[in-house]
Specification:
Blueprint (H helix, E strand, L loop, with lengths): L8 H8 L2 H27 L12 H48 L6 H20 L10 H19 L6 H25 L4 H21 L5 H22 L12 H12 L8 H4 L9
Helix pairs in contact: 2-7, 2-8, 3-4, 3-6, 3-7, 3-8, 3-9, 4-5, 4-9, 5-6, 7-8
Length: 288
């Protein structure tokens, strides 16, 4: 797929698996790990799993495994939250850039301002459309359309400022270039995710930790403690995975800033920015 050109085979395969299937698989893995830990306890301590103490210092193993898992979960969660915040701020930056470019374009005479305004509206609609879908769900040709709109906007900007060498033209070109740059940065950030290998390592550490808990816990209340541990670990892993999926997860960065700019541009067409003496031609005095 052209939209996934920046991803390797493992990342493409990982993105094609829905979140609920991954979470369900992790949940089943942890349950099997708990059953495995209980089986090992019975294997070494008797049929009921309550005889003996397993081995000396088993509590330290459980504490060390859970502490290491907590450390890994903390670092990975912080990484996912930082990327989420960065994606959210880029939405605001792109919205401000598009609106500033639109306002500056109204300083140009017609038909340049009208062409740039129409292209900006089409570009804004396209940015909203691609922001709601994951790269694997994009329609064929979405990448070509994005490139075409960017090239068209820049070409029209150069045509409008070709014979202008003032501060307004310079400011406009700089703002338009920054807007296109922010859009490219957003696309790169959406593809820059936590590597699948890190997710797999977290799942393996979680399975080992639950196995250690299953081996260490015994008695009638062991299943209650194991269920709490399995639920909390599955919830933490699911939260990290959801934050790492910008478009297919439950937690998504809001597109409200772009939506607000879209309504503003629709409500203020280029004709609204014309001086009063240009909105209508003055009537000629009668008889002259």
């Amino acid at each position: 797929m052209e939209e996934l050109v920046g991803l390797n085979a493992a990342e493409r395969l990982f993105l094609m698996i829905p979140i609920y299937r991954v979470v369900l698989g992790v949940f089943v893995l942890l349950i099997l790990s708990a059953i495995g830990g209980i089986w090992l306890r019975r294997r070494f301590s008797g049929k009921d799993g309550t005889g003996g103490t397993g081995f000396e210092g088993e509590g330290y193993v459980v504490t060390a495994a859970s502490g290491l898992l907590a450390l890994l979960l903390g670092f990975t969660f912080a990484m996912a939250v930082d990327r989420f915040d960065e994606r959210r701020m880029l939405v605001i930056d792109e919205a401000n850039g598009i609106y500033s470019t639109y306002l500056l374009a109204q300083t140009f005479p017609q038909p340049d301002s009208g062409r740039i305004s129409s292209t900006l509206l089409a570009y804004l609609d396209h940015r909203l459309a691609v922001s709601r879908k994951s790269p694997i769900d994009q329609k064929p040709g979405a990448l070509q359309l994005d490139r075409h709109l960017k090239a068209q906007l820049w070409r029209e900007s150069l045509e409008a400022t070709r014979n202008l060498r003032d501060d307004v033209a310079s400011t406009y070109l700089q703002t338009a270039a920054q807007t296109l740059e922010v859009g490219a940065t957003r696309e790169a950030i959406r593809l820059a995710r936590i590597p699948p290998f890190i997710h797999v390592v977290l799942w393996v550490f979680s399975a080992i930790t639950v196995t250690a808990f299953g081996f260490s816990y015994y008695g009638r209340a062991r299943w209650l403690g194991l269920c709490v541990i399995i639920f909390l670990q599955t919830l933490a892993l699911a939260l990290i995975l959801d934050l790492d999926r910008p478009t297919s997860g439950i937690i998504r960065e809001s597109q409200w800033a772009l939506e607000d700019v879209k309504h503003r541009l629709r409500d203020t067409p280029p004709s609204e920015f014309l001086p009063n003496n240009q909105t209508s031609a003055p009537e000629a005095p009668g008889g002259l």
